[in-house]
């Protein structure tokens, strides 16, 4: 009776670029989940910082795994790091990618400028080439890694090098902003629960019941 209709592939793709309810509502949901995580504020904030940093890396499709591993190594909250990868989304990836690749070329001493369309095309082509070369192991096709080598030199390595500085800056900023907010929220929540508990105890005494003697 209440069976939900499965989403079409077109709708899934559309919601990836623009979530149901909009990006503001999605950001509110992520923020709400982060504040309510059962861990000290500094560990949650550390996880957030790691997740933000992971979003700057060129490991597309592996940002969750990257964030989880780094968070575990740095003793951050793993779930917080996964939620914080929300920073990397279709609205921010174009800026992150072009900034990181070109900054990486500059850091490597290369006078090269690579624009977003080439970056996107390079990742798509490299993914296809890797898949084709892996399939060639089980077929008569000949593996060709020459295009992968060019992708590595022109896009991937500069991206990996260039993402470090903006990624760390964004991660540190996320920690500095998140830690006091989460700490204040947790303290307010504890005080609210304590006040509610004391109120119930006071009501019980006022009714002459006293503390529960069956405990």
Question: How would you describe what is shown here?
Answer:
- By secondary structure, this protein is mainly alpha-helical.
- The protein has helices at residues 9-17, 22-35, 41-54, 63-73, 78-84, 93-107, 116-135, 146-162, 164-206.
- The longest helix is centred in the last third of the chain and has 43 residues, at 164-206.
- Mean pLDDT is 82; it is low at 12-18.
Describe the protein's topology.
Layout: H1 9-17, H2 22-35, H3 41-54, H4 63-73, H5 78-84, H6 93-107, H7 116-135, H8 146-162, H9 164-206
Protein name: DUF2062 domain-containing protein
Transmembrane segments: 48-74, 156-178
Pfam family, one: DUF2062
Short key terms for the protein model shown above:
215 residues; mainly alpha; elongated
How many E strands?
0
Apparent shape: elongated
Q: Into which percentage range does the β-strand content fall?
A: under 5%
* Rg result: 24 Å
* Whole-number count of domains: 1
Separation of the first and last Cα atoms: 46 Å
Q: What are the segments in which pLDDT stays under 50 over at least 5 consecutive residues? A: 12-18
Helix content: 55-70%
Most strands sheet: none
Mean residue pLDDT: 82
- Helices and strands, in order, run as HHHHHHHHH
Protein name: DUF2062 domain-containing protein
Transmembrane segments: 48-74, 156-178
Keywords: Membrane, Transmembrane, Transmembrane helix
Domain DUF2062: 25-189
């Amino acid at each position: 009776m209440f069976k939900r209709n499965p989403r079409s592939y077109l709708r899934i793709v559309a919601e990836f670029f623009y979530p149901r309810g909009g990006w503001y509502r999605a950001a509110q949901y992520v923020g709400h989940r982060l504040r309510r995580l059962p861990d000290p504020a500094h560990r949650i904030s550390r996880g957030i910082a790691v997740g933000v940093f992971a979003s700057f890396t060129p490991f597309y499709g592996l940002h969750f795994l990257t964030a989880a591993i780094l968070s575990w190594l740095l003793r951050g909250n793993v779930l917080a790091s996964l939620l914080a990868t929300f920073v990397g989304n279709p609205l921010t990836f174009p800026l992150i990618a072009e900034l990181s690749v070109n900054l990486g070329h500059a850091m490597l001493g290369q006078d090269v400028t690579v624009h977003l369309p080439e970056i996107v095309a390079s990742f798509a082509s490299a993914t296809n080439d890797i898949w084709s070369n892996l399939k060639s192991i089980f077929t008569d096709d000949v593996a060709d890694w020459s295009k992968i080598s060019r992708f590595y030199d022109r896009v991937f390595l500069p991206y990996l090098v260039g993402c470090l500085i903006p990624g760390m800056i964004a991660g540190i900023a996320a920690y500095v902003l998140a830690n006091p907010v989460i700490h204040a929220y947790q303290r307010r929540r504890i005080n609210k629960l304590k006040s509610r508990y004391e109120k119930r105890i006071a009501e019980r005494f006022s009714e002459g019941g006293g503390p529960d003697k069956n405990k």
